[in-house]
Amino acid sequence: MTDTCKPKTRVAVLISGSGTNMASLIAAGQAADAPYEVVVVISNVADVAGLEKARAAGVEALTVEHKPFGKDREAHERAINALLVERDVEVIALAGYMRLLTPWLVQKWAGRMLNIHPSLLPLYPGLNTHARAIEAGDAEAGCTVHVVTEGVDEGPVLGQARVPILPGDTPDALAERVKAAEHTLYPQALAAFVTHRRAA
User: Fold this and answer.
1) Does 2 reside within a domain?
2) The CATH number of the domain where 161 resides is what?
3) Is residue 4, in this structure, part of any structural domain at all?
4) Do the domain assignments include residue 44?
5) Which residues sit in the known binding site?
6) Which residue range(s) make up the domain with 55?
7) What is the pLDDT at residue 1?
8) Rounded CA gap, 92 and 9, in Å?
9) How many domains does the chain have?
């Protein structure tokens, strides 16, 4: 049972593209008994499909493009952080956010920022996870929700979902099945995470 006397935890989702995981987080958070709600979506790329999905779901959607900041990644993150603070955001969920974060932002949101990665961490951090799993001859792949730390894809694991690798699988075919698992896992892991925070 969710403690309905407490307001929902205010979550921001950072995206760079189509926002399919973002959409699953928004939908789950709009349930009456959800312990969180997505209050803002921010993209570092203008006009991506995820922004329209967020607006269609009634969620504020903003763009803070990284290109005007050049190589000053921290300045870009400070601009994003100012928007988060203005909106009383409590937890950040990265969902296909394709920027390496600086220590400044990671430390600012230490213990309050989650990410979903398309492998069974600690296997295959970084990119090309599905091709690497297939090439290794693994029997299964999957996805991991973890707390963001300064090391890439190294933070404490909050949940995993396993997906079998089928004979003749291609990286694209495997990616589609893993993506479907992500859409279930991420809302569940986020809900469990914020429920634990609320009880602490």
Assistant:
1) no
2) 3.40.50.170
3) no
4) yes
5) 19-21, 73, 98-101, 115
6) 9-199
7) 45
8) 11
9) 1
Is 196 among the residues known to form the active site?
Answer: no
Residue 63 has pLDDT above 50, yes or no: yes
Q: Give the bridge partners for 14, in sequence order.
A: 42, 94
Question: Does a structural domain hold residue 3?
Answer: no
> How does pLDDT run across 171-180, given as a tens digit for each residue?
999 999 999 9
pLDDT at 139 over 50: yes
Q: What angle do CA 84, 8, 58 make, to 5 degrees?
A: 65
**Catalytic hit among 66, 76, 117, 183:** 117
Share of the chain above pLDDT 70, in %: 98
